[in-house]
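To assess whether the prediction recovers the assembly geometry, we first specified each molecular entity separately, as shown.
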Amino acid sequence: MIPPLLDVDHIYCGYQQKTILENITFQILHSELVSIIGPNGSGKTTLLKTISRLIKPHNGTIRLNGINIQKLPLNQLAQQMAVVSQIVEPIYISVESYVLMGRLPYFKKFQFFESKADIHIAENCMKRIGVWDIRHALMNELSDGQRQLAAIARAMAQEPILLLLDEPTAHLDIAHQIQILNLIKKMNRELDITVLMIIHDLNLACEYSDRLILLKNGEIKQMGEPEHVISYQTIEEVFDTLVIVNENPLSGKPCVFLVTDNHLKKINP
Amino acid sequence: MNQRSYFRSTIYIVIFTVCCCIVMMVSLCIGSIRVPITRIFDIWLNGPGSPEYSILFSIRMPRIILGFAIGGSLSLAGTILQGIFRNPLVEPYTLGISGGASLGVCLNIIFKLYESIGILAYPLSGFLGAFIVIICVYSFSLKRNTLNTQSMLLAGVMISFIASSLVMLLMAISTSEDLQNIVFWIMGSLEEPNSKLIFFTVFSSICGLLMSYLFCSDLNAFFIGEDDAFHLGIHVERTKRILFLVASGLTGFCVAVSGIIGFVGLIVPHFIRIVVTLDHRILLICSFLGGAIFLIICDTIARTVISPLELPVGVITGIIGGCAFILAMSKKQVRL
Amino acid sequence: MYNKIYMAYNKIYMAIGLLLLCSLIQGQCLAKQGQTYPERIISLSPIITENIYLLGADSKLIANTFYCVLPEAAQKKEKIGTLIDVNLEKIIHLKPDLILATELAKAKQIKLLKKMGIRIVQYPKATTYDDMCTQFLDLADLIGKRMEAERIITSAKKYVLDIYHRVSFLPKKRIFFQIGTKPLHTVNNQSFMNDYILFSGGINIASNESSGIYSRENVIKNNPEIIFIASMGIASDKEKDVWMSFPTLDAAIHNRIYIIDSVSTCSVTPVSFVNALKKIAQYVHPEAFQSN
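The predicted structure of the complete assembly is given in tokenized form:
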């Protein structure tokens, strides 16, 4: 039995005295692409912050490859886990320098400058993600989508085994959304990188994820493959909204259709 | 950063070092008595005895060395603080350190502590005042083990106001001799008779540079946000605390020794950022040297422009610094 | 009150006696020792400059401050700065063997100069006229003009005694001596200017104050009969108007508020003190000087 890559064990976490997440337990296996879905305020970002060690859980342990993440030195943690935030700040720094920062966890004690190997790795990442052509541009000159790509390139430069993403498609148009998710899926399949991401769009979540974790009010409501998690009853219960769930004719994955007030009038005149 | 950028940055460091040496030599020659460069070596060889030797090596040289140390320290402190707070208006004095030092020296002058301890009472009282303020600002902004930068700025500004008001209160009830003493100290001066103190200032400035250089990558990482820096393996809290103490300590020493010389910590880092780079691996060194060059030039102007009278060096740093900065801002783009 | 004046009276007499005695002895000693006196003197105070000219040693004065404007010849000397801030390089270049300063000089600069081995003598503020005279004699000692100094002091003190004689048995006037505004500044008994009031037959209402800062309310409360205001440009005229506006103020009722020249009263040598004292005494007790 291969041990899980990420083992979240009965954690209770939140900010200061308030507990937002209660008794969260799940595992993520190697090479999985898992999405966390749920309504606003359900604790998705809190969960991600706790896994990335920004917040310390009140109770419970999180283990990465069997080791408690609280016991790992910070730079070792960064060598294994990379985080892409929701908002990438438009700062006065070239894409190249930004991506090179991903090599910081590998700097030795008195090392201040990147080695040739570091530069080579960053170059590969930029080429693979597709930002090599804009490597001299400043981050504040780029569009949201391009910045998001640069952030992913930086995360990849960390050579992680686990990639955490907080709503990578939040501010993007549909073309860019698909581009980013295709890229993430490619990383997951080709480079064997485990991905845990928060995503709002249920359809995209179903299309790209191996498993879904559905959160509501700080608890895991459902966990499993998209077919098992997404049903109209679950959506109505968790999101408090009527939907129709059908099968995507191209992929066979569940697909969620909206039900608006007008539709209801048609059904129930 | 590719090879070409590194090469460019190394060139900048070399240029700044050379400029620094040139400025120091020129400053040695200029004064109410002009000494040509060619004669300096001769005078030095002939040893003490001639008035020229006294002027060059007992008056000008200590001033230049002190200008190097203090200009460098203030500029370095400004760079560090702007890096931690990610706020361009932060400088060593925004955190109330100068207010605390002024208050310390005021109390020393009014209660005549220098009569019991001697002339060292000035730098000691200045540093004590600065230190107390540093502790206050630090404790106010420690919330659940996190150093909250917003609270720090607020606390610093408030303490600054309180300290200035107290200084004014003391000035209002002081005798005219004490008042003059206080005002002159506040105006800032690089004249210092105690050579041990000068040596100590130089030593602490170099130490400050070395200590802060250990965190140059961390400062670069802060640029992309504290959370993201944490995810890159940076000990954000620990780094913030250490750097804050380094910057405040450097400022405290400078204010204690030479009074209040403003603008150096605000203007020089910005200038270097615009002209050279945002990368702290180069920025810290260039900032230090830039600050040294700037202060030595300002001090030379201050003591020659209306010779034999002298202007307070803080006046010159303000005027020249402000104008030069506006000029630079209107021209270049920023690049890393 | 009478005791104090009597003591001052006595002091002056004793001083003159002692002076005559000492001068006889010292003059002999010094002449025998053949002591060398400084030849290159720098003065850091207008009062010290004036004193040097008074003693006839101005040929030895090589530099002074920008504020040394009296006598007129002093303006032509080399300038090295102000009372507080001096140009060290210039001083060293001039190679002085004695620097005379007040306690206002910057401590750091004094220390630097001492480090170079230059002799510096600092004079604190004179607390009484007697103190001023003692400092004058010390200065004279330093530059080898003892005899001239004694002559000058003896003569000056005689004048002072003369003035005092005329007024000593007249009723004492309560006097307020204003030397600054914003904040209101007066002289207490730690300043030699207090002696202007004492020797002209008056009582300083602020004599026992610990600092020179005084409140207008206190002045009204103590109701002086005479107010002197040291000239401060137009500010002194405004001050006079302010005082005149108080209907209960004795000095205002009898129109005895006088503006006097600040330079000739505040910045004085033992000799110019006498001239200033005469003017003040004439204001305080005009009846004592009518025969002249």
